[in-house]
Structures are given as structure tokens and as C-alpha cells.
Write a structure and sequence with these properties.
Layout (H helix, E strand, L loop, with lengths): L1 H19 L5 H44 L7 H15 L7 E5 L2 E9 L3 H9 L6 E9 L28 H21 L1 H20 L3 H4 L4 H16 L1
Parallel strand pairs: 2-3
Antiparallel strand pairs: 1-2
């Protein structure tokens, strides 16, 4: 067996040398290989730099959040209003219908809002740094009905965090690849039903991290929905 592997290795090296040092086309082939190697090196360097910056930003953000827990600095009303407004688009389907005002750390919310969006909005605002209290003056509606400010809009999904996000950050993908790979190797070594389950789970995590596709898109469950949306868009443009 070792002799056969050795012969195959020698044959492969010989074929590669003949391919690269062919008298007629060897120079061009070597140039192509060199260009591809340089291109791959640039891509790897750029990806490593992006991941490094993302990890640094995550660490700085975590330290800032930790530091804010032990600070009692006052946040100006203007800054507080801007922070709350920046969150509205992720929580409610009609952010422009909500009026935000801050007075000495007390956030006053007013305007029409759908009933199922009230609690997520209040929970988010009260948890924000600098908010001392809230004054809820919202006009709650079970449905949009004929309320002008609640017409149209887009239903917002619950905010996902960490690994539940649709698009993973480079840091999350790096950690998921390492964790999934270790889990897959452990499963292969353990064998049996448990080993097969662990290795399959690890490979699934690695695939999710490398493709950066949501699990539903990865297995094709979102395909028909996208097709319908695209068809509606095309028909709308044609009309």
C-alpha cells in the first residue's frame, strides 16, 4: 500500500512538472498559476482583515456595554430622542406615526400604533441606556382600519440576536465554523447513533457559517415565496 501511494505521488509530481515546464506553453501556465495564487492571497488577506476588524469591534462594543453598566452619566434629551427614533424602524411597522419626546430622561411616546407592537416597543425603550421613565400616550388600534397613519407599512419581524440573525457577522461565522468543525470531528471519532447525530449537526453548522444563508433558504423552503414576490414585482412594473 505504501509503495502504491509513493508511486502515485511521484507520478503526480512528474505530471505537474511536465505541465508547468512544457517548452511551448510552460511559461504561460506558470504565469497563470502565479496570478491565481496572488489573487487567492489577496482574497484571504482581505477576509482575515475584515474578520479581525469585526472581532475588534465586537470586543470594543462589549467593553462599552459593560462600562455603561457602572456609569451614571446623564444622557441629553436630544440624544435620547435620537436613540429611540433609531430603534422604531426595527420594532413597529409605521415608525413615522410615532412621536418621540424626551424630558429630563422621561421618554414620552404618542401617536397611533398597532396593538401587537405596543409591548415590544415599550420593552425596548425602557431598557435603553439613559431612559429614566416612560410616559405612554400611544393610541392603540387592533387593526389599521381607516387610520391614515397606519396605512401601508411593513410588518416587522421579531429582532433576532446572535446566531438567530439571518446574516451572521464574520466573527460569528468564524466561531461557528470552528465549533461546528470540532463537533463534526468528535462525532466521527465517537461513531454510533450519537456520533452520527453530532457529526451531522457539526457539518450543518459549518455549512450555515460558510454559506451565510438562513436555514430556511439553505434547504429551499423560501424558494416559492421569493418566486411569487418576484412575479408580483414584474407584473407591477409592466402595469
Amino acid at each position: 500500500m505504501n509503495r502504491a501511494i509513493g508511486l502515485l505521488s511521484v507520478a503526480g509530481i512528474s505530471a505537474g512538472m511536465m505541465y508547468l515546464f512544457d517548452p511551448d506553453r510552460g511559461k504561460r501556465r506558470r504565469a497563470l498559476v502565479r496570478n491565481k495564487a496572488e489573487h487567492a492571497s489577496k482574497i484571504a488577506t482581505a477576509a482575515a482583515g475584515k474578520t479581525q476588524r469585526d472581532v475588534r469591534n465586537h470586543l470594543l462594543g462589549a467593553f462599552a456595554e459593560l462600562e455603561s453598566l457602572f456609569r451614571s452619566e446623564e444622557v441629553s434629551d436630544d440624544v435620547l430622542e435620537a436613540r429611540v427614533r433609531s430603534k422604531l424602524g426595527r420594532i413597529v411597522s409605521h415608525p413615522h406615526a410615532i412621536e418621540v419626546k424626551a424630558v429630563e430622561g422621561v421618554v414620552i411616546l404618542s401617536g397611533p400604533i398597532l396593538a401587537d407592537e405596543v409591548l415590544p416597543l415599550l420593552d425596548t425603550v425602557i431598557a435603553m441606556h439613559g431612559v429614566k421613565n416612560m410616559d405612554n400616550r400611544l393610541e392603540i388600534h387592533e387593526c389599521a382600519g381607516e387610520v391614515p397613519a397606519l396605512q401601508g407599512g411593513r410588518k416587522r419581524q421579531a429582532t433576532r440576536v446572535g446566531p438567530f440573525k439571518t446574516n451572521w457577522s464574520p466573527t460569528t461565522r468564524l466561531l461557528a465554523t470552528a465549533t461546528g468543525g470540532a463537533l463534526a470531528i468528535y462525532g466521527f471519532k465517537r461513531r454510533g447513533l450519537l456520533g452520527s447525530t453530532l457529526s451531522s449537526l457539526g457539518m450543518a453548522v459549518v455549512t450555515r457559517a460558510l454559506t451565510n444563508l438562513d436555514s430556511r433558504r439553505l434547504i429551499g423552503l423560501d424558494g416559492p415565496v421569493k418566486g411569487v414576490d418576484a412575479e408580483k414585482t414584474i407584473k407591477g412594473i409592466a402595469a
